[in-house]
Amino acid sequence: MAMNRIIVITSGKGGVGKTTCTANLGMALAKSGKRVVVIDADFGLRNLDLLLGLENRIVYTALDVLAGECRLDQALVKDKRQPNLALLPAAQNRSKESITPEQMKKLVRALTKAYNFVLIDSPAGIEMGFRNAISAAREAIIVTTPEISAVRDADRVIGLLEANDIKAMRLIINRLKPAMVEAEQMMSVKDVQDILAVPLLGVIPDDEQVVVSTNNGEPLILDKELSQAGTAVSNIARRLQGEKVPLMDLSVPKDSFFKKLRQLFN
Amino acid sequence: MISDFLERLFGSREPVSRDTAKQRLRFVLAHDRSDISPLILERLRKEILAVVSRYVELDLEKLEFSLESDQRMTALMANLPIRRVRTNPLEPDSPVEEAQALDLEDTDNDLDKVVEEASETADIPLD
Q: What is the ipTM of this complex?
């Protein structure tokens, strides 16, 4: 029997797309038939519920479970669009210190009995919230963008994960702008990979569709026709399950030279 | 205007920001990863230079001393150009920096001659 996977999604820097990745990756894995639970470990600043469009269905949170006020299954919000997916919400009116690493481990251990994948959405930073989020994880996905500050913070997080004995790490490079890479005004996938020296899980191009999908609380993966970013996440979910999927071709279409020429005159 | 247009079309020769980002990251990460404070690094540098200087005379202008990082392995890189080897290595406690400027073997260093030259110079009329 395949072992259950407990994966923390983390980045160090905030705003690089951790929660969006967690929501979409969770949905993609669920769509492929796996039983998936996503845990919001960002106590006090929860957002995973919003990105999944489940914010109105939260009754109990992880803290209520730990306080013995409800059972674990009562706190889980099951997605009606994708029955394989469930969310364990964080408390919004409490701080990151309101839960301990031991309690997080207890929750995760219980969840692995019913789910193939436990995805833990880590808060930004490297303080208590981060420590809680990684405490139960056996694998880590590091999300970064090709920006200098995000890469630096990712590097710091990689060091902390190593120090905490989480050796299975993989990298997602988010919000890549192929035209800028081609103009050498943005670090390339290879540049970031060379610097961080962590195996690459996937690259998600910068895509306006992401904003639309978060506005609507409808993960990209639910689109009938997948956007570029949606396809990228779907590929990531497949790679995570051991399938060999080549990286998407993100090179700028050749005809864009004339487009550029036109832009020059405008 | 035309040159501006050509520059935009063919790309300027200025360094691309991608390389600048990489270079700045490499430097900052070497320090982040090693977790050595600038103060400690400076102390380390001074101590290593003192030890090496007992045996060889270093070219202090050209020496390089930095942390570099590759594949998550941090290395202390020191490039210490040797001006000449000391025939008699100095004792551990002897002051190295002074020894570098002065040399007992230097035959030009005749005290009387130096004073004489100085007084001759002083006699030159100003006009």
A: 0.82
